[in-house]
TrEMBL record:
Keywords: Coiled coil. InterPro entries: DNA_bind_recomb_sf, DNA_bind_recombinase_dom, Resolv_N, Resolvase-like_N_sf, SSR_resolvase, Zn_ribbon_recom_dom. This is Recombinase family protein. Residues 180-295 form the Recombinase domain. Residues 18-171 form the Resolvase/invertase-type recombinase catalytic domain. PANTHER family: DNA RECOMBINASE-RELATED, DNA-INVERTASE FROM LAMBDOID PROPHAGE. Gene3D superfamilies: Putative Large Serine Recombinase, Chain B, Domain 2, Resolvase, N-terminal catalytic domain. It comes from Gordonia alkaliphila.
Length: 503
């Protein structure tokens, strides 16, 4: 066969049609992705049987959102990337294990069909019905399936809430999620060293000691929160106000808006676990902590710089801000250095430039972090985070609603008077949600990223946040070790900052 025959055959050989695979699992407790791997394998076998080639994007050859819910308003980055690929017309099929992997709400399925219909894209499922938006019956079946999946998710949430309530009323200990300070993970075995701190702290509060002083004492003894963070006043106060340490079982009923708020917590009976602090003494502690005259404005040894105590010298010890006179006169030179209490090589670094460099890193990291998704992931094992995630979701919905109202009145589709009434309701609810998020975020139980869950703009939030809030975010996100500088160097070198991201 000559070269012309070879060229002709290559040019006329039909191309394999292209498809994409989407996998998702709401909660991957092991973190190993076994569930999505099985979904992918089944989808690949089906695509191969149909004669389709699997394509992806620059990130991966499949689109996978692991441990993300499709029922809550959680941003799914790989689902968005799949939609982008559909919009370009590069694929004609999407393979999924079942259609509820794509979405569990009717409105999301309808949006997906609107995107697929003009491009002739269909969805094929390993189990159950697929989606053919060009077919009238297909659209009807998909809508029905979406409604069923949505109802199933709602019923599942109701069953979980009912199980939590039943457990509370029966006095069973809290299991799963983050360990409560003072107890082991089973929620009933007392951890002696932490329990001793709580008992002493309860008496200290009754004797008039400040929460700040108690927190400082715990830090000096080397104790941390169950997340591994430094102890602060909010953590100590939250622990001492928790009825659980007095052996009392609690339940958070829903309010008029269907939300479970910490301030609505009710004591429903005695728990089956042993108390760390006797109920009578715990009641006395509550009387002191709830006393409105108990106000302290003392600053004490509160850090005055962003990275003081957070930055680590290469010797492993924390670095603190110091100053020294400049040879040229003028303002004193501000720098971070350790206390040189352990043998080894020590370093120092300019505080102003270091603060600015770390702030830039944090802001960039926060821009790339899906805060709603982070909260929702925490919500899977943490009741407190679940409340924050739900408030964040509702806030996003209200912001979208506000935009819709403004567009409607601008287009003349809504009367100004009606707009005023509707926008007033939206703004009132937004204000209530922002207050609730702020209250929950101030608690030691709140994940640090909850601090900015309601922020529309990371830079704006950071610029308006006080120092302690910024420090909490830095401590949550990263560990920074300062390396040695070049001898005789006059300029700040950001490469000396060796950052390890925690989240």
């Amino acid at each position: 066969m000559d070269s012309s025959d070879s060229d002709f055959n290559a040019a006329t050989m039909p191309r394999m049609p292209s498809a994409a695979i989407y996998t998702r699992i709401s909660l991957d407790r092991s973190g190993e992705g076994v569930g999505v791997e099985r979904q992918e394998e089944a989808c690949r076998r089906l695509a191969e049987l149909h004669g389709y080639t699997i394509v992806g994007d620059a990130v991966s050859d499949i689109f996978c959102d692991n441990s993300l819910s499709a029922y809550k308003d959680v941003d799914r980055p790989r689902y968005r990337a799949l939609c982008d690929l559909i919009e370009t017309g590069e694929i004609t099929r999407v393979y999924v294990y079942s259609t509820d992997r794509l979405a569990r709400r009717t409105r999301d399925l309808l949006d997906l069909m609107d995107l697929m219909r003009p491009r002739g894209v269909t969805v094929h499922a390993v189990t159950g019905e697929g989606i053919d938006p060009a077919s009238a019956n297909g659209a009807l079946i998909t809508t029905i399936l979406g409604a069923v999946a949505e109802q199933e998710s709602a019923h599942k949430a109701e069953r979980i809430r009912a199980a939590y309530e039943q457990r509370a009323h029966s006095g069973k200990p809290k299991t799963g999620g983050r360990r409560l300070f003072g107890y082991e993970r089973d929620g009933e075995t007392i951890r002696d060293d932490e329990a001793a701190l709580l008992r002493k702290a309860a008496q200290q509060v009754i004797d008039g000691d400040s929460i700040r002083a108690i927190a400082a004492e715990w830090n000096d003894k080397g104790f941390t929160s169950t997340r591994g963070n430094a102890v602060d006043s909010a953590m100590v106060r939250s622990l001492l106000k928790n009825p659980y340490i007095a052996g009392l079982s609690t339940w958070n009923p829903t309010d008029a808006d269907g939300r479970r708020l910490l301030r609505n917590r009710e004591i429903v009976g005695e728990g089956s676990w042993p108390a760390i602090v006797e109920p009578d003494q715990w009641e006395r502690v509550q009387a002191v902590l709830n006393d409105p005259t108990r106000v302290s404005n003392k600053i004490g040894n509160t850090p005055q710089r962003l990275l003081s105590g957070l930055l680590l010298c290469q010797c492993g010890q924390p670095m603190y801000r110091r100053t020294r006179p400049r040879k040229s006169g003028g303002d004193r030179y501000s720098y971070y250095s350790c206390k040189r209490v352990v043998p080894g090589k020590h370093v120092h670094i300019g505080s102003d430039d270091t603060d600015a460099a770390v702030e830039a890193l944090v802001i960039e990291r926060l821009k790339r972090t899906d805060l709603a998704a982070a909260l929702a992931a925490a919500a899977a094992t943490d009741d407190h985070s679940a409340e924050l995630a739900e408030l964040t979701r509702e806030r996003s919905d209200l912001l979208a609603r506000r935009d819709e109202l403004e567009e409607a009145v601008a287009d003349g589709a809504m009367a100004v008077q009606a707009f005023g009434r509707a926008i007033a309701r939206v703004e009132a609810r937004l204000a209530a949600i922002d207050e609730a998020i702020a209250t929950l975020s101030a608690s030691a139980d709140a994940p640090p990223l909850a601090e900015i869950a309601a922020a529309e703009n990371v830079e704006v939030w950071w610029a308006g946040a006080d120092l302690m809030r910024r420090r909490r975010i830095v401590d949550h996100l990263m560990t920074i070790v300062v390396g040695p500088g070049k001898h005789g160097a006059k300029r700040f070198d950001p490469h000396r900052l060796n950052v390890t991201w925690k989240h």
